[in-house]
Amino acid sequence: MFTLSNCLILAAALFSIGVYGVVARRNILIMLMSVELMLNAANLALVSFGRYYWPRGDHAGQVFVMLAIAVAAAEAAVGLAILLAYFRNRESADSGAMGLLKG
Amino acid sequence: MRAADPLALLLPWIALFPLLTAAVNGFGGKRIGREVAGWIACAGVFSSFVLGLRCCFGLLELPAGPERVLKDVIGTWISAGDLHVTLSFVFDPLSAVMVLVVTGVGFLIHVYSIGYMEHDEDVQRYFAYLNLFTFAMLVLVLAGNLPMMFIGWEGVGLCSYLLIGFWFTDPKNATAGRKAFLVNRVGDFGFLIGMFLVFTTLHTLDFAEIASSQFLRLAAPTTLTIATLCLFLGATGKSAQIPLFVWLPDAMAGPTPVSALIHAATMVTAGVYMICRMSALFVAAPLTLSIVAGVGAITALGAGLIALTQNDIKRVLAYSTISQLGYMFLAAGAQAFDAATFHLFTHAFFKALLFLGAGAVIHDLAGEQDVRRMGGLKRWLPTTYITFLIAAAAIAGIPPLAGFFSKDEILWRVLENFLQGHGVYWLGLWLIGIAVAALTAGYMFRLVALVFFGSFRGAPEALLKPAEKSAPMMKVLVALAGLTAVVGFFGVPEALGGSYRWGGFLQPVWARGNEVQLPLAHGHWAEVLHTALVLGISGLVAWRTLDLFKSWPVHLPSWLLEDPVFPAIRRRAEVAFGVDEAFRRWIVEPLYAGAARLWQVFDVGVIDKAVNGTADSVGRLAGWARGMQTGTVNLYAVVMTVGVILLLLSFTLI
């Protein structure tokens, strides 16, 4: 059941959903969530590889993921803060309205 | 290695004192104040004069002959390949004469300037320039080699430019300064080319080595002729000879003492000095010497004619200077270098006196320079009148004043060249010389008559203010008049019972080509006769002109008016024979036109197009590139994703 290929397929599927979300949706909140999805897909891949190559001992993959989650939390906080400021300014979360600097 | 003679160590200081005071006045002028500036400047020049005098006496103590020379080699200046140029100062009899003239007459003119410039607001700058000029001129005459001389040569040109344009707020003066500088540059170009040619043929630039170079005999005569002609071109620029004399009359835009110092007594003599200094080289090129003499004679004649028709007191004197310089070149061309320097020496005194006298007249008439609005001034300006008359008589060759001896010497030596069988050419030059002697007396006494005789023709209120009240100016006039009266006695010819000590003093300096100067069979009586002839002509013309122009406006005698030749010459002489106009038409305007074409074709067509084209193409590229910046965040994300995918694909495929 939890073979390496199954895990990686799941991670790729999650990643693709995330990419689709970032590319296709225009609500910034959704885009941010999609980015988180991609991040976690990558975490999943990391854990899977770690488990597969070092079945006992050596938790490098897991430790790496912990670190990534911690950084991602900080990054999400910053992203949400920017989103909030933007929303207050524009009363909308539409990324299409972000073209003010377009030449 | 420095010089053995301790006296020679003084030589650099002769030149450096005026530079020092120039720096004091130039940089600290505001602090020291206007009253002190003039005296500081005078002190600098006077120190040089005292040192020059000391060195001169030191020179006389040395045994007579070629070893009578002081030389101070400070060190190497340029050393590259064959070329070794030293920083050296040389003081031989010729330099001694020049140093004493430059500092002596220069000192008197400095003192005069204190009075003349007392109302000017920029006295410190004036004296700084004047000192700087003295420094440059002293470097020129003390230089031991051609490049050193060139420093002074360029220096006097620069100071001349600065002083002609001294009152630069009037564009006319600034233009005159520029003109002088540019015309001089043409001559300097010749000087440089000549210097290069001298180096390639003689492999040295040191004066002493040039004079004794064995290459002088070996070099091709054509090369020497071309080299000397180039040097002579430099001399015509600095000494205002045909064809480069046009700057000197315009140079009268400067303050009058400047005209006296630079444009009569010192700088313009640099060309004559240079030829005398390089006499060995010129003697080796007889063709050049003939050309020098010819150009000198023609210039003397032309300028004399022009001087006769001018109405600006300073312009008359300027053309007179050109004419007298022509005499000096005539003498140099006739290998009578001692006569040339003798005339240079005496001319420095009486021409300075003439200019300073004219300056006193202009000063007291509040800037009036047109002789048609003068007249009868001998009653109001008695001192100026007497001294001016002495100078006029001196330049016209009335004995026993200075000009008589020197001019007589020149004419006799030119005639001697003919009598010794050098061709009828010299007879022609001698005849021109006699004509110029008559012309000199003519224009000079026309000037005296128009300024000092008759009745005053200007505005009557011009005479109300007290005249001749500046003590320094009057004292200098009297001193110069006294000197003018006596300096001629340095060179009383043997024919008149003298011993021509001048020639003896300078003898070691020259290399004479026709060394066989046998006393001629006709002997002294011919020279006496010649002197009497010259004197008779000059005196007669002087007396007649004075008589004729006393009651201006004159009615010329009918024989002059009916003659078809005279009015034609007069018309041409009034516009200086159209040389200025010709320069404008054939050189200045084509240059302007060429520059305008270059501007249109090259500047607009090539340079501007290249610059604008670069900017345009960058703009077009940017216009195309900015299409990518849509501002849609999602599109950026797509591009990024596609990019990452392509990157990964490329990794897996390779």
How would you sum up this structure, described in words?
The complex is a heterodimer of chains A (103) and B (654). Chain A is mainly alpha-helical and 103 residues long. Helix content of chain A is 76%, strand content 0%. In chain A, helix 1 runs antiparallel to helix 2 and helix 2 packs antiparallel against helix 3. Chain A is elongated and about 55 Å long. The mean pLDDT of chain A is 87. Chain B folds into two domains: 533 residues, no CATH class; 75 residues, no CATH class. In chain B, helix 2 packs parallel to helix 4 and helix 3 runs parallel beside helix 16. The radius of gyration of chain B is 30 Å and the shape is globular. About 1% of the residues of chain B have low confidence. Chains A and B meet through helix 1 of A and helix 26 of B.
Topology of helices and strands:
The complex is a heterodimer of chains A (103) and B (654).
Chain A: H1 4-24, H2 28-53, H3 60-90
Helix pairs in contact in A: 1-2, 2-3
Chain B: H1 11-32, H2 34-61, E1 70-80, E2 83-91, H3 93-116, H4 123-142, H5 146-164, H6 171-202, H7 207-211, H8 215-218, H9 221-238, H10 247-250, H11 256-265, H12 270-277, H13 279-283, H14 286-309, H15 313-333, H16 337-364, H17 382-396, H18 402-419, H19 424-452, H20 471-486, H21 501-506, H22 523-549, H23 558-562, H24 565-574, H25 579-625, H26 633-653
Antiparallel strand pairs in B: 1-2
Helix pairs in contact in B: 1-2, 1-4, 2-3, 2-4, 3-4, 3-11, 3-16, 3-20, 4-5, 5-6, 5-11, 6-9, 9-12, 9-14, 11-16, 12-16, 14-15, 14-19, 14-24, 15-16, 15-18, 15-19, 16-17, 16-18, 16-20, 17-19, 17-20, 18-19, 19-22
List key phrases describing it.
heterodimer; A: 103 residues; mainly alpha; Helix Hairpins; 3 helices; elongated; B: 654 residues; 2 domains; two-stranded antiparallel ribbon; 71% helix; globular
CATH class of chain A: Mainly Alpha
Largest sheet of chain B: 2 strands, antiparallel
The percent range for helix content of chain A is over 70%
Give the CATH architecture of chain A: Orthogonal Bundle
Major sheet strand order of chain B: 1-2
Quaternary structure = heterodimer
Number of domains of chain B: 2
Unreliable stretches covering 5 or more consecutive residues of chain B: 513-521
The secondary structure category of chain A is mainly alpha
- Helix fraction of chain B, binned, reads over 70%
Number of strands of chain B: 2
User: What's the order of the H and E elements of chain A?
Assistant: HHH
Low-confidence parts of chain A lasting 5 or more residues at pLDDT below 50? none
Quote the distance from N terminus to C terminus of chain B. 78 Å
Number of helices of chain A: 3
Percent strand of chain A? under 5%
